[in-house]
Amino acid sequence: MVNKCSLHRQIEDLREKMYEVYETSADYEDLLKISQELDRLLNELEKMKNN
Questions:
Q1: Source organism's superkingdom (predicted)?
Q2: DSSP letter, residue 51
Q3: What backbone phi and psi angles, to 5 degrees, belong to 20?
Q4: Which of 33, 10, 12, 7 lies closest to 21, judged by CA?
Q5: What's the pLDDT at 2?
Q6: What residue spans of 1-51 are helical by DSSP H?
């Protein structure tokens, strides 16, 4: 299981990656995949907070 600190780091790293892809590429598919993964991590964090 991933701890909260690690999960926060993954979320921040993915946010940065998404922004970089947005700035350097117009590839909607890449942005969509990153966004979906970010959503998954944010949902996981929310579950951790509720437990």
A1: Bacteria
A2: -
A3: -60, -45
A4: 33
A5: 74
A6: 4-24, 28-50
Q: What distance in Å separates the CA atoms of residue 13 and residue 34, rounded to the nearest whole number?
A: 11
Q: Which residue has the tokens 């117009």?
A: 26
Tell me the two tokens of residue 25: 């590429």
Query: Which tokens go with 33?
Result: 């995949």
Contact between 38 and 14 (Cβ < 8 Å): yes
Q: Using CA atoms, how far apart are residues 4 and 34, in angstroms rounded to an integer?
A: 20
* pLDDT band at 1; cut points 50, 70, 90: low
- What is the tens place of the pLDDT at every residue in 19-44? 999 999 778 899 999 999 999 999 99
The structural domain count of the chain equals 1
How far is the C-alpha of 4 from the C-alpha of 48, rounded, in Å? 8
